[in-house]
Amino acid sequence: MVKSISNEQIKHMEQTYLANREHLLSQRTVMKNGILASSENQKAVVENNPVFSIDLDTGNVTNQKQSGRCWMFAALNTFRHDVLNNHHIKDFELSQNYTFFWDKFEKANYFYENIIKTSNQELTSREVAFLLATPQQDGGQWDMLVAIIQKYGIVPKTIMPETKSSSSSRELNTYLNKKLRKDALTLRTLIANGSSESEVETRKVELLQEIYNLLSTSLGTPPTEFDYSYYDNDGNYHLEQGLTPTSFYDKFVGTDLDDYVSIINAPTKDKPYNQVYTVDMLGNVVGGKEVRHLNVDIETFKNLAIAQLKDGESVWFGCDVGQSSTRDTGIMATNIYSVQDTLDINYDMSKAERLDYGESLMTHAMVLTGVNLINDKPTKWKVENSWGDKVGTKGYFVMSDDWMSEYTYQVVVNKKYLSDNLKEVVEKDDVTVLAPWDPMGALA
Fold first, then answer.
1. Radius of gyration over alpha carbons of the chain, in Å?
2. Quick check: is 364 catalytic?
3. Which of 63, 70, 319, 372 is catalytic?
4. Residue 218: partners with Cβ closer than 8 Å, 6 or more residues away
5. Which of 27, 52, 171, 234 sees the fewest Cβ atoms within 10 Å?
6. Is 202 left (phi over 0), alpha (psi -120 to 50) or beta?
7. Rounded Cα–Cα distance for residues 406 and 330 (Å)
8. Which residues have C-beta within 8 Å of that of residue 106, sequence separation ≥ 6?
9. Which is catalytic among the residues 63, 265, 364, 372?
10. Does the annotation count 319 as an active-site position?
């Protein structure tokens, strides 16, 4: 039987609250200053000063502005570090707008294909409802950017610079998703009326032309061939002519992206360690690189990241950035706020419990560019963010090792750092497919 709250219960709650002096003290400060400002712990700030035993020089930070492209910025920043070091180019960035264009374009086709695949299901099925809830968005995964680069290459930012819609993507996403939902109606109607496979494909290609037109209007038309001139750090002029996006990648970056693997730490019962997982309906390039995650324990997870940092290479990683972190000072620490003391509540959950109950999932991708080791054990990590240089220490954040354990879910490392056993695991075709709404399918 459903029971309502009685007036007697409310009166008792009021009396209990008012009889507690600590509650009244917290009430005064929280009403004046807010919950977080009243709970900030200066000890955590002191403990997480930006000094590291391993500290890579990665230059100035980038700024994704009002867009959800953190995963893309973080990945391109890892490549940018190599270009800065190997070619000594001043103030260099790769074009996030270029990869943004092709990601949007490929996501449209990926959406169409999933709509066609699920056309025999009712609109009320969980899969179709999932697709229509968000046909596409800015977020993504490391493997999704790999798929874009392997198909389309990359270009310098000066060749395809930012536009209003790339830097502030809300309007573009609104109207792109309106169109994709209408296109889903068109394709499902064609199939329901008995159209042939070739007729449906022909219509899909026509719809993709409309998507290309929309994206070109908003983001510009991607270059297919270009000349690139630049000054190096010594002031020498360089001119590269007749480049394509693929040849530019090969010449200036050259990293074999198939050498890198996504490592996750998801300590839930449904995901045993030392196995590979993928997520249904997660991707962008149909037929491109599949999103795959190797799940390992947290000690292995950290050691792989440390090994790559020791070799002078930064590490792409994904986390739940809104948990226990400050934006202005750039501190990510489990003890940065004492909210439970301030509010006299208990919301303690294990990492697995937070994943299972929807309290946490990956929301943001950044780059590890340093770590502090004491007796070869990490105490804090240096983080390159993509929110510009007005936050943190000129855009760089500090992450405590405890925070790494609790709220970091993914790193990308070269396979050479894996043990022989884990190398065998990632090379196998034995992959467990997770549901589209699994937390490991969250987009950064």
1. 24
2. yes
3. 70
4. 163, 165, 166, 172
5. 234
6. alpha
7. 17
8. 147, 148, 151, 284, 285, 286, 288
9. 364
10. no
What are the angstrom distances between the C-alpha of 370 and each of 71, 315, 324, 415?
Answer: 19, 9, 20, 20
pTM above 0.85, yes or no: yes
User: pLDDT tens digit string along 135-169?
Assistant: 999 999 999 999 999 999 999 999 999 999 999 99
| Distance, CA of 110 to CA of 191 (rounded, Å) | 17
> What tokens does 220 get?
């510009």
Cα–Cα distance measured from residue 105 to residue 214, given in angstroms and rounded to the nearest whole number: 10
Q: Residues near 425 by Cβ (< 8 Å), separated by ≥ 6?
A: 274, 275, 276, 294
CA distances from 62 to 75, 290, 388, 389, 442 (A): 12, 27, 5, 8, 23
CA 278/CA 224 separation, integer angstroms: 32
Rounded to whole angstroms, the Cα distance separating 206 from 229 reads 37
| pLDDT at res. 267 | 98
Q: What is the pLDDT of residues 221-239, one digit of tens each?
A: 999 999 999 999 999 999 9
Distance CA 336, CA 350 (A): 18
Nearest to 412 by CA among 78, 61, 70, 63: 78
Q: Is the dihedral of CA 409, 415, 420, 422 positive or negative?
A: positive
| Beta strand segments in 287-332, E | 293-295, 315-319, 331-332
**AA letter at 333:** A
Residues of the chain with pLDDT under 70: none
Name the residue among 222, 244, 233 with its Cα closest to residue 83: 233
- The token pair at 238 is 């360089």
The answer for 233, left when phi > 0, alpha when psi is -120 to 50, beta otherwise, is alpha
Cβ-in-10-Å burial (0-12, 13-18, 19+) of 436 comes to middle
Indicate the SS3 state at residue 431.
strand
Phi, psi of 197 (to 5 degrees): -60, -40
Report how far residue 188's alpha carbon sits from residue 376's, in angstroms, rounded to the nearest whole number: 58
- For 382, the 3-state DSSP assignment is strand
pLDDT of residue 94: 97
Is position 114 annotated as part of the catalytic site?
A: no
